[in-house]
Amino acid sequence: MATTTASITLTSADLLTDVLSLSATNTLYKAGTTIGLDQTTGMTKAYLTAETNIDIFPTLIEGSMAFAGKSSWVYICNKSEDETEFATITISGNIIGKLYAGDYLWMPWSQSEDGHGDNKHGDIELLPSVATGMWFEWCMINEGTEYPTAV
Amino acid sequence: MATTTATITLSSTDLLSDELALSTTATLTQAGNSTGVVGTSGLGRKKTGGTSQYILFDGDAYANGAHKVYLKNTSTTAAQYFTIEINSEQMGKLYAGDWCFFPWEANADTNDIKIQPSAADMVLEYMLLIDE
């Protein structure tokens, strides 16, 4: 069993009259248990040069029974240093938000079937705002991985 | 202009043969510029007696922007979770002690963030950092 922890610290001295200093740490467990997650896609580093929506975990069979009730965590970071450059992140074709230069997200992912009937199977997609080249990093830490059968 | 930072650290010595030690800090700015976000819901806690789904953040109540959402399940019972939906699509489940941090565009009236507890009397901690 692996032990993987995720921590966040939110700080600001001037957002509020009081200082903001929030910290949280959790250990990544299999769903509903205290057994550590033991699989990962590894960290992808990608240089994207088209304004094209891409499925960032294309080799996985999202929405398959292999993931039913399982726990998955997703990290995505926009490594651009140009404040105007962003990536639009969608799940099942619906916009979550935009990651501007230096922004990241850390979110759980159910990989459940989409609720709008567009057969997206819970895909997480990323759309760069420019075609001049943007760097990204992403990874998933999870339990239960089903890969497509080779053809 | 306020300066607010969010630092994530992912670490493990035994998930892989090599050590995982990732740390990233983001300065939270408004969309497309370097001006810091100045609005926040404040850090809040919500406890519901039942297990019905509720709207935590209403897409109709915020302008389209580079908002950031922080959520934490304060439960200590491993099996208890909150299901997070965005625009009626299931994003994922926050089990006991889990937290998440993600951008939210509030790009449509329907772009609500909805929460459903798996058990009664669970407490969700939340914070919205608002691009306004």
Q: Which key features would you list for this structure?
A:
heterodimer; A: 151 residues; mainly beta; Jelly Rolls; 5-stranded antiparallel sheet; 4-stranded antiparallel sheet; B: 132 residues; 11 strands; 52% strand; globular
What would the CATH topology of the domain at 38-142 in chain A be? Jelly Rolls
The CATH homologous superfamily of the domain at 38-142 in chain A corresponds to Jelly Rolls
- The first-level CATH class of chain B is given as Mainly Beta
Assign an overall shape of chain A.
globular
The CATH architecture designation of the domain at 38-142 in chain A is Sandwich
- Percent of residues of chain B in helical segments? under 10%
List strands and helices in order, with pairings:
The complex is a heterodimer of chains A (151) and B (132).
Chain A lengths: L3 E9 L7 E8 L11 E2 L3 E5 L5 E2 L16 E7 L7 E6 L2 E7 L3 E5 L15 E5 L5 E9 L9
Antiparallel strand pairs in A: 1-2, 3-11, 4-11, 5-10, 6-9, 6-11, 7-8, 7-10
Chain B lengths: L3 E9 L7 E8 L11 E2 L3 E5 L5 E4 L9 E7 L7 E6 L2 E7 L3 E6 L8 E5 L4 E9 L2
Structure description:
The complex is a heterodimer of chains A (151) and B (132). Chain A has a domain at 38-142: Jelly Rolls, CATH 2.60.120.10. Chain A starts with a strand and ends in a 9-residue tail after the last strand. In chain A, the strands form three sheets. In chain A, strands 3, 4, 6, 9 and 11 form a five-stranded antiparallel β-sheet that branches. Chain A has a four-stranded antiparallel β-sheet with strand order 5-10-7-8, with no helix packed on it. The model of chain A has no long low-confidence stretch (mean pLDDT 90). With 151 residues, chain A is mostly beta strands. In chain A, a hairpin with a 7-residue loop joins strand 1 and strand 2 (20-27). Chain A contains no helices and eleven strands. By secondary structure, chain B is mainly β. Chain B has a single domain (31-130), classed as Jelly Rolls. Chain B is 0% helix and 52% strand. Chain B has strands at residues 4-12, 20-27, 39-40, 44-48, 54-57, 67-73, 81-86, 89-95, 99-104, 113-117, 122-130. Chain B is globular and about 40 Å long. The termini of chain B are close together. Strand 1 of chain A pairs antiparallel with strand 1 (4-12) of chain B, so a sheet runs across the interface.
